[in-house]
Design brief:
The complex is a heterodimer of chains A (about 210) and B (about 150).
Chain A (H helix, E strand, L loop, with lengths): L1 H19 L9 H5 L6 E3 L4 H10 L10 E2 L22 E2 L1 H8 L11 E3 L12 H5 L6 E4 L9 E3 L4 E7 L5 E8 L3 E7 L8 E5 L5
Chain B lengths: L1 E6 L5 E6 L4 E6 L5 E7 L12 E8 L2 E2 L5 E5 L5 E7 L7 E6 L2 E6 L6 E5 L2 E2 L4 E9 L5 E10 L3
Antiparallel strand pairs in B: 1-2, 2-3, 3-4, 4-5, 5-6, 7-8, 8-11, 9-10, 9-13, 12-13, 13-14
Classes of the chains: A alpha+beta (about 210), B mainly beta (about 150).
């Protein structure tokens, strides 16, 4: 009986450790085999059309928690990555990493300048969806939903998506890295009508 | 130091923790499925805000899916300070985190994860590491480990 209790105790600790850890048995080679850590290219301006082009190329390229690296072959090269596991190493960004790259932001939160990151540059940036929602960081400001334009964002405490087009019925076409089961794409969403979502803008658009 | 701030009408509990690098408030939802955190340090922030960082954590089977690293805060010296949650084990009564050569010890309170701080921040890479030890009610060490956390959605 004593041995059984001891075993049960050890098992409970092991189970607790396993549950508390973030490691997963599933990993892919996409990041390891394809992505780089090259320096970004500073630019002197940012346009909504230019950022839209960056965003559009991420469509169908998958989703990776804490990720930010994708190619442009219109295929999720690492489907079924473990959810919320940054070590899975799969293709795609998560919602905040996708936004960071599209908005050409700096890893330095005090810098509002413009930085062009390569598609295969693995970078997430320092902002969570919550940070974007509250306008943290020099390049991010909160704005009224009525002022939103293409490539502005709607953000909640746990998610952020970019305006692609406003629909006549008050919904929006949102381009977003939605989740592992969905990937990155454009969907019609009612985020604008939800009190959980706020408007966010990247500063300094020249057009 | 940890202080339970009490429940609201929907039975949410909040725990405020004050350390040498900063302070945080962790609020647990009535359902137990989410926790919300507000972080604050002596460093700069927007004039209209009290917090320099916020976090939303999702729990499954009582455990956080992600430590929810936040890098929005800075110390009085302007250098970044990372905040993240530690999910204590069932027997853990104290969580200790190594900071600047000493250990900050926080009691586990109200079944909520423990929000801790670190100066071990890697800005390029948006990640931070936390050296943690967990202790039982008598202070005996249960386990020690390092968490390498990354900013994620």
């Amino acid at each position: 009986m004593t041995r059984l209790r001891a075993f049960a105790g050890v098992f409970a600790v092991a189970a607790s450790l396993a549950a508390a850890g973030t490691a997963s048995a599933y990993h892919t080679r996409f990041v390891a085999d394809n992505c780089n850590y090259a320096s970004p290219t500073p630019t002197s301006y940012i346009t909504r059309a230019g950022s839209a082009a960056v965003a559009y190329r991420a469509r169908n390229e998958g989703y990776q928690w804490a990720g930010g690296c994708w190619n442009d072959d219109n295929v999720d090269n690492s489907p079924g990555d473990a959810t919320e596991d940054p070590s899975a190493g799969g293709e795609g960004g998560d919602c905040s990493g996708f936004t960071f790259k599209v908005w050409r932001e700096s890893e330095n939160q005090g810098d509002a300048g413009y930085f062009q990151w390569g598609m295969l540059r693995n970078v997430h940036g320092p902002y969570t969806a919550s940070a974007f929602k509250h306008g943290y960081g020099a390049p991010n400001v909160t704005i009224a939903k009525s002022s939103l334009a293409k490539m502005d964002a709607l953000a909640s405490e746990g998610h952020i998506g970019l305006i692609w087009e406003e629909n006549p019925d008050g919904t929006d076409q949102i381009i977003e890295a939605k989740g592992e089961a969905y990937g990155t794409n454009i969907w019609t969403r009612s985020y604008r009508g939800s009190s959980s979502y706020s408007g966010v803008r990247r500063t300094g658009w020249s057009s | 130091m940890a202080r339970v701030l009490g429940g609201s009408a929907d039975d949410r509990l909040a725990v405020r923790r004050v350390g040498t690098l900063g302070e945080s408030v962790t609020v647990g939802s009535a359902s137990g499925r989410t926790v919300y955190g507000c972080d604050r340090t002596p460093g700069g922030r927007a004039a209209s805000t009290r917090a320099c960082g916020e976090a939303l954590g999702r729990r499954r089977s009582g455990h956080l899916l992600d430590p929810r690293l936040d890098l929005g805060c800075t110390g009085a010296d302007g250098k970044p300070i990372g905040f993240a949650w530690i999910d204590p084990g069932a027997r853990t009564r104290y969580v200790a985190v190594q900071v600047d050569g000493y250990a900050e010890v926080y009691p586990v309170a109200s079944g909520l994860p423990v929000r801790v701080t670190t100066r071990s921040v890697e800005v390029a890479g948006s990640r931070a590491s936390f050296d943690i030890s967990e202790h039982d009610a008598h202070g005996r060490a249960l386990r020690s480990y390092t968490i390498e956390a990354r900013v994620a959605s």
